[in-house]
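Async update (no meeting this week)

Hi team, since we skipped the sync, here's where things stand on the single-chain job. The sequence we agreed to prioritize is pasted below, unchanged from the tracker. I ran it this morning and attached the output directly underneath so nobody has to dig for it. Comments welcome in thread, and please keep replies under the output.
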Amino acid sequence: MTLHLLPVRTGGAAENMACDFLLLQRYPQADVPRFRHYGWQRPAFTFGYSQKIALVRATLPADGPFDLCRRPTGGGIVDHRDDWTYALVIPRGHPLEELRATQSYREVHECLAAALRAQGVPALTKPVGAPSASFTEPAGVCFERAEYHDVVHETTGQKIAGVAQKRNKHGLLFQGSIWRPAAGLALDWGKFSDDFTAGLAHVLGTTTEPAPWPDLPEEEIGGLTEQYSSLEWLEYR
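Output:
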């Protein structure tokens, strides 16, 4: 088994969310873990599947315009205007997929924190029981407060990275975000990506392998992108 490293792609918010979900639902090699880093065509925010749209809109900054999309995963509001975004899918039945959500969350973030420390960033996962830090000038809506097992700055306690999850019969989808200013703008992001995915492969008990973009059904990509772009999906709750 290998961890497939997929090509970097840039898309709109709805298309990015659709591709992540289809990597969980329709990947041709369903038993293989897969990872992708991706970008955003326009400034964007995403928010968790269970969040209420009225609260989301009341929380968002006024300096738009930007794309807004409900994610298929949980979690809070994420500012993608200056983040490093990734998706990871662990197939059904893998030991990491079978862990409790808090434990799989921690495992992924331990790999991420180690990759940051390799470049001198004093990053760690926030331990259970540690107090939450708040900032008068938060890095982003989701980064105002760190929850347990989020990646934080060891000295200041500022949140650097968070991740949301969705589990179904196909496996476990992680949608993660690293706020670049909190991690350090001088970071070598290519090296970070290599170190992060190498750490994930070690935890998964496998090796990394570059893989082409999968042959996902175009009609499903288009249909799901249209659904995620719709007002009905946006205002689902």
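Quick observations from my side:
The first strand starts at residue 2 and ends at 5.
The chain has one domain: 2-100+163-234.
Reply here if anything looks off.
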